[in-house]
Amino acid sequence: MHEETRIELRIPPLPHYLGCGKTEYVKGEKHPHRRNIQAYDLLIMIHGEMYIGEDGLSWTLTDGDLLLLLPDAEHYSVKPCEKDTVFYWIHFEHLTQKNLIFSETMQDHFSKPSNRPFSNSYTLQIPKYMRLPDKKRVFNMVEQLLAHPSALSFWQEQQLLGELLGLIEEMSFGKKDSAITKIAEQTVTFLQENYKDKITNAIISSSLHFHPNYIVRCMQEKYNCTPLDYLLHYRLERAKRLLVSNDWSIESISEEVGFRHAPYFSACFKKEFGTSPLQFRKQYLK
To answer: Within 13 Å and on the Cβ side, how many CA atoms surround 17?
Structure first.
């Protein structure tokens, strides 16, 4: 079960870097017992063996293993190290509530509905535990963090943390970099490039040269939605930006983002965001 668990972090805000280090335990030493430290504790094993528990679950970490301990949990040593052990630790915080998800529900998500006029959120999915497929790349990035003197390179540290978490997420999804993923990504590219035009499943199929049912299945596995669901969401997000960026009529904006009938556009907009296009505009424009 451990290998299937991921921690979901909604972005923005970005995870905030607090610090990192390299710790060495000789045989007989163990990780401290802590609770509610209010920071994520990312452990990356260099060599040796460490026995870690958290809220009733336990892991035996060896060379190249990664474990993410939660800020509001209790974590502790299950038993002392039986050999000399070296590992990296990275502490970071994130202000939004985390969610734990499991393998059967893992997928990339497009932005959830938001009443903000400009929204481009992302869901970062970090594995609770994983064996790194390319530990040298990860080690090198952590060493770069260690090389930055404290308080003198704030932005470089934040950037490196973002790159490190992105690399870990990319590695964890690497095994799923399949034909299904590629077709789903091609579909998204097609939809984003042609969202102003009339689009149907048949048109998508003709453009990508795959059966429409297969394209739908690929999108559902990768993005948890159908191509037309994604298209509707994308059009409405573009409409939000236009509503607060100019004084075009609702009819003009409707047509600009690919809707042929303004009443249908208004109905979809209200269903997605809980307010009509005109009411949404009045929140931001005088």
So the answer is: 24
